[in-house]
Amino acid sequence: MPQVLLNAAGPLPLSVTFAATSDDPITFFVAGSVWTQATNVEIGFSVILDGQQIGVAKIFSNAPATHRAVVPQFIPFQFSGMGNHTLELVALPGTTVSDLNDNFTVVIVD
Hints:
The chain has strands at residues 3-9, 14-20, 25-34, 41-49, 52-61, 68-69, 73-78, 83-91, 103-108. It is mainly β. The radius of gyration is 14 Å and the shape is elongated.
């Protein structure tokens, strides 16, 4: 059954602490939106688990000052054991901006 870890408005960074109940393989589903003041740039956010980047959700933005949904990502992962973990969403360096009008979702889907 899917487990919603995060469903929140920005701005980034956002983080959540959760307990891994198994060391079976899982998949994180991540989605959200961001924007930029620049033209013709790649924007998005990193998915960081316990200090290590495990994925990136991004989109190319042609126009400035428009909130853009990143391309949703499915990120496979396997914990080395049960216990508490911290997952963070962090804006990509450069021109990525987020605010309270951006929403972010992280779900463990299996």
